[in-house]
Amino acid sequence: MSKEMNGRKLLLICMPIASLFFLTACAQTTQVYRSPKGYDFNKGEKLFLPDALHELSGIAFPVESSKHIFANEDENGLVYYFAPGEHQYQQIKFAKKGDYEGIAISNGYIVVLESKGTVYSFPYSDILQREATNVKVGKDLIPKAEYESLAASQSDSLLYIICKKCAVDKSSSKVTGYVLGLSKEGDFFKKGEFKIDEKQIDLISSLKGKQFRPSALTKNKRTNEWYILSSINKMLVVANEKWEVVGAFPLDPSLFNQPEAIAFDDSGSLYIGNEGGDKANKATLLKFKLN
């Protein structure tokens, strides 16, 4: 990194948002962090989320537009959706209380991942209802373990899930991922698996002797690259279509205090969501526009 870059200040730009739930705040640090191509993690917009999403665990945008953000938290079987500028959020119940993590929207369905590996789908058309109908549940499709990362590939209606902590990876330098198909009826079926090599990450940015623990996943449809977030490692990893690591970017812990959610909107802006953690803090979305 050049001396000029070392001397720059990290500035999180404040932009006004007319909403009861979205407020803005500024943060500064003297360190500059590297960013994936097309984005600048040294410039962004910070949005505070409603208290209902204090335990934020996943975000997603519909394919058609980015008017609404869909989100879930890890305690209740609810999906929330809202738009910047609105004074209210809507919610829909799809399951009883549990430990819910990633969320994705694909093939006309909203899909939610439970931490033990169970997946739920319900029709996107149900969002105007208080409770989802025709909920499909996919059990025992992947090994029981700890999962937080779920993403959809719109081109083929496939779902991708990455282990956070799986027995199969205990003595390995690789992290296992699983591919599920999603039918037009909302049913799930096994499709395959893949591996992410921690050694490839270490060559770019040191994991400091820790295992890689993914907390969220999304696909950049402009580049066909996978963006893999880790709250524990405070890192964003970028992989190509073959799951080869092509980038690894440490995250500023003062901004990314507990990064648990990631998604792109239809304009290419990257959103990273932080769980509130300590009750004194609020869950946040950090928005980085495409350069």
TrEMBL record:
Subcellular localization, as worded in the UniProt entry: Cell membrane
Signal peptide residue numbers: 1-27
InterPro entries: YjiK/CarP
Statement: the UniProt record of this protein carries the keyword Signal: yes
Alphabetical UniProt keywords: Cell membrane, Membrane, Signal
Domain of life of the source: Bacteria
A Pfam family: SdiA-regulated
Protein name: SdiA-regulated domain-containing protein
